[in-house]
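The instructor's notes for this session suggest beginning with a concrete chain rather than abstract definitions. Hand out the sequence below and ask the class to guess, before any prediction is shown, which regions might be ordered.
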Amino acid sequence: TLGGAGVLHAPHGLDALETTVRALADDPPDVIGVHGGDGTLHKVLTLLIESWPAGRAFPAIAILPGGTMNVVSSSLRLRADPAEILRGLRIARERGEALVTVPRACMKIGARYGFVFANGAIAHFLEHYYASGAYGPTKAVWLAARLLVSTPLQGPYARAVNRPFRGRVVVDGLELPWRQITSLSAATVREVGLGYKLNHRADEDPTRFAMLAIHTSPFGMVLGSPSVFEGRGLSPSLASSYLAREVLIEPDEPPMPFTVDGDIYREAAPLRLSMGPTIAFVRPRALSV
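After discussion, reveal the predicted structure:
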């Protein structure tokens, strides 16, 4: 598909990916296409941002959606067939056309760069989602339905998933009054999967990320879903909403499980969220006319 317009790299594993990224930083291309889901995208971007020389123009990023979760491309309305995206890039290069890009800032989440963060019950739900090794929308919907049934009965599944975050949270220097929160969610894109626009304020300010302190239970989140799917978010009675530049999270019970773009991590130390660099994402040719 690329012909002579580009080079394909297919690193096997994170060590090989790091070697590839450092080589790209030494000889920078105009565009880097990333094939995979949100987890792949945030791993590649983290390595690129860490490796890129100061003062050198950062390349445009073409998302070639091919993973279990493609939240970033869906939120930014960049979803298209990966081969068609590459074909469009080749044609643009052959014709000398300027690429159309969509700017969007990422967040720095500890030592990682990504677009969606969550802890508490949301992270526990994802841990169960990944537990069996079978992924996809059908499984996610089935687990959500199981949670809906189990929560009123306080079954073992509901008790495992509904564990809240306990600890201290400081938003732009202001400490939140709660020591127990169902979930914290922060993002620079609106969706978290399956069209669920949990972070409905993510488009409001390009210099800040949207953050929710969710007080309601996961069962309450399900009941509030119609408003979320419509893009109006959870009501203030269910979650407190902020636009932030920096958030400090200090768990009472480390290590704290959390998700970055669908991948699960655990860290014992306090976690700091801040604004990361703005990335220029390529708008696929088919979506630019």
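Then share the key points. The mean pLDDT is 87. Residues 137-153 form the longest helix (17 residues).
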